[in-house]
Amino acid sequence: MPHRKPFIAGLGSGIVLASLLLQLIRASGAEQAPVPAGIGPDAWKAEAARQGYRVLTESELEAVKKQAAAQERAKIAAETAAPEPSPAADSAVAVQSAPAETPAPSPSLPPGTVRIPGGALAQQAAEALAEAGVIERPEDLVEALRKQYKTTKIRAGTYTFKPGTSIEAIVQAITSD
Asked: According to the UniProt entry, which residue ranges have a biased composition of type Low complexity (predicted)?
């Protein structure tokens, strides 16, 4: 630790000196370098094109900003829409349909089939799977979801699991990456 003191002291002194220098520059009134005479908008556009850039007018810039904002909104809307469930790599899992209303299985669902509603919490999904007879202990699934940081990535849908499906396969099936 003693060999670091000179380094830290030098670093601190350098920061102080740099801030003083910046204050002196600001106080001198030096804002920007003046534009050389004879360089007009056409020259700037030509130089930008030569270097692979494009100079935009303010209206073009606003149009680009609006287009980027629209693309970002569309991307967010696509991400927040209920994703289509995809079959997991494990053949013991089958995804049947889109989001459902209740987390618990209804009497009309076959054994091993569970509906997970949109916005379901890890505990709710685990309890629905336990009620459907897919898992024995909801705590095991909740813990696996926590360890993989997937408690908020549960996808809505109707899932069918074969007897003996592993917790890992269930986590992979009901969560998004």
From this structure: 72-101
